[in-house]
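Running this now, will post back.
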Amino acid sequence: MRIAFYAPLKSPNHPVASGDRQMARMLVKALEHVGHSVELASELRFYLREPESKSFDALKIEAREEAARLTKLWDRDGKPDLWFSYHPYYKAPDLIGPELASAFAVPYVTAEASYSRRRNAGLWADTQALVARAIEQAALNICFTQRDRQGLTDAIPDAALGMLSPFIDTSLFQELPARGCPTRLVTVAMMRSGDKVESYRMLAQALGRIGHLPWTMSVVGDGPARDEVKAQFAGLPADRIEWLGAIEPAAVPDVLYGGGIYLWPGYGEAYGVAYLEAQAAGLPVVAQDIAGVPEVVRNGQTGFLTPPGDVAAFASAIERLLAHNDERTVMAAEARRFILEERSLGTAAARLAELISKIPAS
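Update: finished.
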């Protein structure tokens, strides 16, 4: 099939690395893996940071202009067989695909669409209504987590839904990892306000409780909240923490391979691509049992998920893995097996092909 791919929040070509950009790229790879031809329909970023009508109106004008451009292009070169929209939600609705798909009788598909009734206030209610209409129109809405599936079911009971587990391209993790330092802790996360800062704050508090143990830590990440994040760790010995800043995605596996345990509390995580990568590298995870994290970490098997907001429990889970290397080693092996066998690009591509094959042709 010839597939028009669009990610309103962040194009796969966006210069700033993030889990969202990475998953967009992985979906394109998965579609191509099973023989589809994927073209990026638009680079237009439709993102509303705040509910401002002026910004919303300006973006709507850009969306109309982009739709007009694509209309001319399709009239000249022919329409695609399917429109694939990645991650439409209240701050980044797809205002291009639904209209074009309807006008050209092209099946419309979403992946990782989300809907939350608690956002239905002010302008967000208007943007969520747009998301809801797109979900209702879609021939298929691919959900990555049961949390998102339930949200769509509650809002649009008749929506066509399918499940695809979060996945990564495991090609960078195929080699058997060398033994990393079992007491080396690793975190990979952007530094921005909100949930990321809250997760860093909890992490610093937990580490402060286990200063009596012989651990060191590597932190990969950067962002506008860098100073605020580092301030949270000011009470910890500076020689224990290595701040690596932002690094190229291809360099992340080497950092993970050098560690023994992956830490990230995970406030607000849709699921967390970094958890998948860490486990692929053979690192058991300590995170919270929160948001979409349980979709990618198996509690008691590939890591520990602690009660939300419980710093003591989070610290205790880290201490357990530091103090019991045999248990850590068993979890490390299971974490690696889980990702390489169940959450690989090939496995996801096969599932994606199965889902799309059931969509009636245009």
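The longest strand covers residues 2-6. More later if anyone needs it.
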